[in-house]
Design goal:
The complex is a heterodimer of chains A (268) and B (248). By secondary structure, chain A is an alpha/beta fold. Chain A has ten helices and nine strands. Helices cover 77% and strands 0% of the residues of chain B. Classes of the chains: A alpha/beta (268), B mainly alpha (248). At the A-B interface, helix 2, helix 3 and helix 10 of A face helix 1 and helix 6 of B.
């Protein structure tokens, strides 16, 4: 099978701090791939580089054959994303959020209408299409975000901790849907999670990143065999240690510091 | 083109849905019109300057526009905080179009605000010099609105949260308004104030409105429009540059 994501010697530095330190990995087309690691390991930074939001310091990325840095439009058309925190417009209705996305991604009008209806019915939100997103529960927002991310038929779906704060019903419903889609349409799924049980149940292959480096890749069985453990959680702990991590300042935090200096308030 | 349109439409939808915002933002201009217009009217008349309401109205229209315009630009910070900005940042469209669409949307809203303030002013006693000239005045309103929405967007793209908001209000919006000659004539000012009013872009906007609505301009209309267009282009360029550099 072909690789849909190819990452070679990827490095990202923020000043002196190296968030991602020379990582290389591939994701095959049609694979469900889990990207695991403790807080501050470099997961979100890597996803941001894959999805064109951050530029790498060095190294190369190919996403569906496109370089996210200099072919950003083509790369952006290839993926859909569900961010860690919500990214819907609260003051628009569910339908308007979908419509907005469809227009931005250039989905032609009649096709857009058809797909929006299909997707919203699939995630069980169609009867609330004209409600403002502000009135939605956390689970409904997540479902709407997934529907939105799929609207332009992406080749790869990125999900950054998609099940955080969802109840088991919603979680199962969501994964069921994504697995079906993975089988029927061959969509590649790339996700991060802190729930090891979820990763071992859903993912076909797993990479574990820590301190900006990939320390292991393989199936759950391979990782367990490698560490001589019986569950993915134990394997994960054995590989990454049981010390609790402090999250390093992200790019956003750096900007916040700059903002404080600019405004002259708060601590430096 | 679709991107610009949908971003524009989003701003208008959000505006039309927040009735409290519309009503709330009219309170201040109305207060200025009534308190200053009638409070200082007789003094102004005695100084031989004519009807103060007619002089003041274009200034208060300018006030309604600049407040709404800068707020619309600054609203980018909400998008960042509520995450919606990320959705637009990963979309396969140029950031310039995104910035342009939301700036045009904000400017449209601010123009509507200006027209509403104009109607309010007419209700409380303002008499335009010529009814026909209200049409070109609306074009000037849009230009002023565009200028300050672009400025607001540029500033907001440098800010991470709402904490700098008060600072912007007190050290940018208020001075821009008070030092623009919106409340007083530009003739016979002390040198420093005269220089400051010449630097303030809002001066030219209000002067153009005053020329068209009250037949009482200070600079000539050609100068006003040229300055406004040039500064608008600079701010649009700067705003879209800063916007394109946003990393999340």
């Amino acid at each position: 099978m072909e690789n849909i994501i190819e990452v070679k010697n990827l490095i990202k530095k923020f000043g002196d701090f190296t968030a991602v330190s020379d990582i290389s990995f591939n994701v095959k087309q049609g694979e469900i791939f889990a990207f695991l690691g403790p807080n501050g390991a470099g997961k979100s930074t890597t996803i941001k580089m894959l999805t064109t939001l951050l530029h790498p310091s060095s190294g190369s990325i190919e996403l569906n054959g496109h370089n996210p840095v200099n072919e950003s439009a083509a790369a952006r058309r290839s993926f859909g994303i569900v961010f860690q925190d919500p990214s819907l417009d609260d003051e628009l209705t569910a339908w308007e959020n979908m419509e907005f996305h469809g227009v931005l991604y250039g989905v032609e009008k009649s096709l857009r209408k058809k797909r929006i209806e299909e997707l919203m019915k699939f995630v069980d939100i169609w009867d609330r299409k004209d409600s403002l997103v502000r009135e939605f529960s956390g689970g409904m927002k997540r479902r709407l975000e997934i529907a939105r991310g799929l609207l332009h038929h992406p080749k790869v779906m990125f999900l950054d901790e998609p099940t955080l704060g969802l109840d088991p019903q919603t979680r199962n419903h969501m994964w069921q849907y994504l697995q079906d889609l993975n089988k029927s349409e061959g969509i590649t799924v790339f996700f991060t999670t802190h729930y090891m049980e979820e990763a071992s149940r859903i993912a076909q292959r797993i990479a574990i990143i820590d301190h900006g480096k990939i320390i292991a890749t393989g199936t759950t069985e391979e990782l367990q065999a490698q560490t001589q453990t019986t569950s993915l959680e134990d394997a994960f702990l054995k590989l990454t240690g049981s010390q609790i991590r402090e999250e390093e300042a992200s790019a956003g935090d750096h900007m916040r510091t700059m903002g404080r200096m600019f405004r002259g308030t708060g601590k430096r | 083109m679709n991107t610009v349109y949908i971003m524009w439409l989003r701003e208008l939808k959000k505006y039309s849905r927040s009735k409290s915002r519309i009503v709330g933002s009219l309170g201040q201009p109305l207060l200025f019109l009534l308190a200053l217009g009638y409070g200082l009217g007789s003094v102004f008349q005695k100084a031989g300057q004519g009807n103060y309401i007619n002089f003041l109205a274009p200034g208060i229209i300018g006030m309604g526009i600049i407040f709404t315009a800068i707020f619309s630009g600054i609203a980018l910070i909400w998008d960042r905080q509520f995450g919606f900005l990320k959705e637009t940042m990963v979309a396969p469209v140029s950031r310039f179009n995104i910035m342009l669409g939301r700036t045009l949307g904000g400017a449209t809203i601010a123009t509507i605000q200006g027209i509403v303030v104009c109607l309010l002013a007419i209700i409380v006693g303002f008499r335009p010099y010529s009814w026909i000239l209200i049409l070109p005045a609306i074009v000037v309103m849009f230009l002023v609105a565009l200028l300050f929405t672009a400025l607001g967007t540029g500033i907001a793209s440098q800010l991470e949260d709402m904490q700098g908001f008060q600072l912007i209000m007190n050290f940018l919006v208020m001075p821009l308004f008070f030092l623009s000659g919106s409340l007083f004539p530009l003739t016979g000012l002390p040198t420093v104030l005269a220089i400051v009013t010449k630097i303030d872009p809002l001066s030219y906007g209000i002067d153009a409105l005053r020329t068209l609505l009250s037949n009482a301009g200070h600079y000539n209309l050609g100068t006003d429009i040229t300055v406004l267009v040039l500064i608008t282009l600079v701010f649009l360029g700067l705003g879209s540059y800063l916007f394109s550099k946003i990393q999340i």
